Amino acid sequence: xxxxxSEIWKQVDRYFADALIAxxxxxxxxxxxxxxxxxxxxxxxxLQGKFLEILVRATGSKRxxxxxxxxxxxxxxxxxxxxxxxxxxxxxxxxxxxxIAQKNLEVAGLADRVELRIGxxxxxxxxxxxxxxxxxxxxFIDADKASYPEYLQWSLKLSRPGxxxxxxxxxxxxxxxxSENPDPNIxxxxxLTEMLSAEPRLSATALQTVAGKGYxxxxxxxxxx
Length: 225
Fold this sequence. Notes:
Elements: H1 3-20, H2 28-36, H3 46-59, E1 63-67, H4 73-81, E2 87-92, H5 95-108, E3 114-118, H6 121-130, E4 138-141, H7 148-157, E5 164-168, H8 184-198, E6 202-211, E7 214-223
Parallel strand pairs: 1-2, 1-4, 2-3, 4-5
Antiparallel strand pairs: 5-7, 6-7
């Protein structure tokens, strides 16, 4: 991407974040903790976190499923948006990431709203279906992109009519349009898109985004029946 364009995106991000997110509301301590722990720098941006919070509040969601916790930054935004009797179930593969996420939740005073499950997401999702877990109102998919099609299938089993499903990082710097690209992350997103197109139970759209982290986007789908 042109250097000038990426710098403008960062400046615009900072402008709106400074204007719309109070310092006390941005969970800066969690971002600092994630950086100190050398976690991958792939958290949602503060503005994107606020977007998730707004979606949850607007839909009145009480039960949330998050696939991919990392250090819990997006989890914090989701947990703050639900009422005191709500619950975020978040799934993380790496025990070390989960440990850091748990500490971030405790520091923010939101740990009582979150159930953190550790292990491969496909296995944990299967466990949720077997339990069976009550349907979720909101599902945020932000884990390994190659497995997005599988995560969508499990999400449908854990949803209800009206459930909102958001899948992050689907544009892949524009590379998603390259059908021959061997990157499993890109092929995973392409298979996800094909599934959404063919699934009569879902109505979906995609939004391209530019931000401090670069050029990407997300898919938003609603369960119709």
